[in-house]
Each structure stands twice: as C-alpha cells, then as structure tokens.
Q: What sequence folds into this?
C-alpha cells in the first residue's frame, strides 16, 4: 500500500509510522489495528440478542465526527499511534473463533472501512475455521461503492449509520461536505447486495440492511431529510433505529465551541418529532430509544 484510496478521503497515504492515513492508521495490507474485542450487549436487540454481539472495535476512522462517542480510539493524535493492537488476518480470526465460543450471535465489525481490503480474507479464514455466524458490517456509511462491492459475499448484515443530510452540517461536524452523497450511494449498494431482511426464529437478524439514525441536538430537521430519502429509495419495512443516545462528552466541549447546541442532549420534543416524521412517511419497522440511552455508561471502556 503505497497510496491508500480505500475511503472517500482518497488521501494517498502510505499508512506507515512516518505517513499515517487520514484515518490515523499506520498498518499496511494484511494487518488490522484493533482497539477492543468483546461481547457487546448494547446494540439493537436484533443484533445483540440475549448473548451479545461478537464485536471488533477497529482503531481509527475515515469520517472522524467531532462528537464521536468512541473518540478515544477513533481520533488520531499527531505523532502518536492510535490505541490498539495489530493483528494479522489469521491472528484476528483466531480471536474471533475464541469469542464465538462465548456464545455470541454474530461477528460485528465496527468501523472497518479502512481495512476493507482484508475483510474478505478474514471472512474466508473464519469460514475455513468452521465459524458460520453472520458477519455484520457496522459503518458510518462514509465509504466508496468500489470498496463495498469487494465485500460482496463476505457480509451478511449491513448496519449503516446515516448521520447528516445538510452539507454545511456534515462539513462542520465531520469535515465531509460530501457525506450525504457518499452515504446514499453506499447504502444503495448495501441494499443491492442484501435486498431481503431475514430474521431467525429468535428475532435475530441474519441477513439484510438495518439503518441507524442518530438524532443530533438542534438538527432534528436534518433527520427529516434523511427520513424522506429513506422513504423514497428503500423498502418501507427496512429496520430503522432512531437513536436518542447522543451524549455530550465533557472532554470534547472545546471542539464544539462553534456548535453550542451540541453541548446539550437531544430534547424530548426534538426526538419525538423525528419519530413522528418517520411514521408519517410510512416507515413501518422503527426502533426507538428512551432518553436514558444518552449516557456514557453505554460507551465501551477503551
């Protein structure tokens, strides 16, 4: 990898210690930087079930939202490697087979877009090791269609966030004015690969696409535009989790000086208006959250 172009940033970095990628990663082909591997019990019920989702939290992120709840592992610090451990394909597969032995329902790859080139090899290794759990691609949706097409046949469940619609908002909060355009194309590709939503007898998702929409304080009308697009372009029964878990972390407050509304939680009024808009648009498979979900308790300890 002399010039990385995996994500929409197209930063052309060599991804070495001297020249890390925009995502902060300094590992080349065949290696993953992993911050945490765990049974995660706080995903959607159709992902975590009763025994948890076998989750891999990858270090770094191509998008880099200023309010990221996983900022401790996602946001690079100049001249410092991101927290985590480097694993080869075989080493990570070994760890995931061990995790599967704990009874988790699936393998959940969180923010793996900047390692997409090696995920098919990882899945092949898992299958050859006898692991047949569904593979979940848990993503910000800021990724290229080309990278997603290379995942075809490797991913069973796509779990994309749809974060922003207004380009000024996405420029200010994630330095990505093109986010909505990129995300819509990415989600359509995910839907093309997995057009049918399939649940097992226990209500766990084993195939398909399930969307997530995080309501942001002061920007609930931006969520209306995202819902309008979903209603136009995707099946009305596509699972959509409308999340009420935005948490203003104290150590990120300085980054929000120009967005004072982001220093508070979402109001009940804002959240309910988004739920009502989704219902009015005919979306039939909605998952909501109580206000208590906005707590740092639910952020893994990295």
A:
């Amino acid at each position: 990898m002399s010039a990385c172009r995996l994500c929409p940033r197209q930063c052309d970095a060599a991804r070495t210690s001297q020249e890390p990628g925009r995502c902060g990663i300094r590992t080349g082909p065949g290696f993953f930087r992993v911050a945490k591997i765990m049974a995660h019990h706080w995903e959607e019920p159709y992902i975590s079930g009763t025994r948890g989702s076998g989750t891999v939290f990858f270090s770094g992120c191509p998008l880099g939202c200023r309010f990221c709840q996983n900022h401790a592992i996602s946001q690079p610090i100049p001249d410092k490697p991101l927290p985590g451990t480097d694993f080869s394909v075989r080493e990570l597969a070994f760890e995931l087979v061990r995790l599967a032995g704990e009874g988790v329902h699936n393998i959940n790859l969180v923010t793996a877009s900047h390692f997409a080139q090696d995920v098919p090899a990882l899945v092949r290794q898992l299958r050859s090791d006898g692991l047949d759990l569904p593979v979940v691609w848990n993503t910000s949706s800021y990724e290229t269609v080309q990278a997603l097409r290379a995942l075809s046949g490797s991913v069973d469940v796509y779990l994309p966030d749809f974060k922003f619609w207004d380009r000024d908002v996405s420029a200010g909060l994630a330095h990505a004015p093109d986010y909505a355009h990129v995300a819509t194309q990415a989600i359509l590709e995910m839907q093309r690969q997995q057009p049918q939503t399939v649940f097992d007898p226990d209500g766990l998702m084993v195939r398909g696409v399930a969307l997530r929409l995080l309501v942001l304080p002061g920007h609930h009308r931006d969520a209306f535009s995202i819902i309008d697009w979903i209603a136009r372009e995707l099946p009305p029964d596509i699972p959509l989790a409308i999340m009420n878990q935005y948490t203003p972390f104290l150590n990120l407050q300085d980054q929000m000086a120009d967005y004072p509304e982001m220093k508070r939680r979402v109001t009940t009024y804002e959240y309910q208006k988004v739920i009502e808009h989704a219902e009015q648009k005919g979306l039939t498979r909605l998952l909501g959250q109580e206000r208590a979900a906005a707590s740092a308790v639910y952020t893994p300890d990295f």
Observations:
- The mean pLDDT is 94.
